[in-house]
Design a protein that fits this description.
alpha/beta; six-stranded parallel beta sheet; disordered C terminus; Rossmann fold; 10 strands; globular
């Protein structure tokens, strides 16, 4: 069975891309073909003479299936800000229908065993006056993996996001604690608190990594790769 997940975050800059890289590497080590997609990105820099989003490029490098940049990141906004504001400034209009259509085409052409589709910012990032990015995994019927940036304030962000995901009728396949600091005070206690309250399993604790260090998948629970039929949306909180 093809495994396809939407990578959501509790906020912007919580490490969705770093975690996605590691998951793609882990799936590849399990013998799976892999693809990472970033359908919507805000923030472009010059890479090899072209305007590209660094996160999308990282996903491409971690994937085993080569795809054109425009397929991986079909909507690129140049300013690093809320997507709907960046789009307005560029005279563009974002829509769920267009984003979902781009990704359906990418999924059909890639046919990878393991696909990650990374979101932008937090769960309810606006796309236009009516739609938010939360509708994207609904449109493609994707299970969600939530990245929690471990820092002061993460408990509230994580619990609200997990509740919103499940209230929107989606399966929260699991969550990942991403260590943003080398020595967070109360890290283990915060993780335990979230394990008791989030109605989905902890997939793994991504260790803190310095800028420029290579990602690895030693921390990932292999069940994410080997048990695609394991639905967790109705799981009870861990005791």
């Amino acid at each position: 069975m093809k495994q396809r997940f939407f990578i959501a975050g509790t906020d912007t800059d919580v490490g969705k891309t770093r975690v996605s890289e590691s998951l793609l590497i882990g799936a590849r080590l399990q013998g799976l073909s892999t693809v990472g997609l970033k359908p919507l990105a805000a923030g472009a820099v010059d890479i090899d003479g072209e305007q590209r989003n660094p996160d999308a490029v990282c996903l491409m490098r971690a994937s085993s299936v080569a795809m054109p940049y425009d397929t991986v990141n079909p909507v690129l906004l140049h300013e690093p800000m809320a997507p709907h504001i960046a789009a307005d400034r560029e005279g563009k209009r974002l829509s769920l229908q267009a984003l979902a259509g781009y990704c359906r085409g990418a999924l059909m052409s890639a046919r990878a065993d393991f696909t990650l589709i990374e979101g932008a910012g937090g769960w309810y990032v606006p796309l236009n006056q009516r739609e938010t990015l939360a509708g994207f995994p609904q449109a493609l019927n994707l299970e969600v993996v939530l990245v929690v940036g471990m820092k002061l304030g993460c408990l509230n962000h994580a619990l609200l996001t997990a509740e919103a995901i499940q209230r929107d009728g989606l399966t929260l396949r699991g969550w990942i604690a991403n260590c943003l600091e080398p020595d967070m005070n109360g890290l283990e206690e915060n993780i335990q608190t979230l394990q008791q309250r989030i109605r989905a399993p902890l997939v793994g604790v991504h260790p803190y990594v310095k800028e420029g260090e290579q990602p690895n998948a030693n921390w990932v629970n292999p069940a994410l790769f080997t048990s695609p039929g394991n639905r967790q949306s109705s799981a009870q909180p861990n005791e």
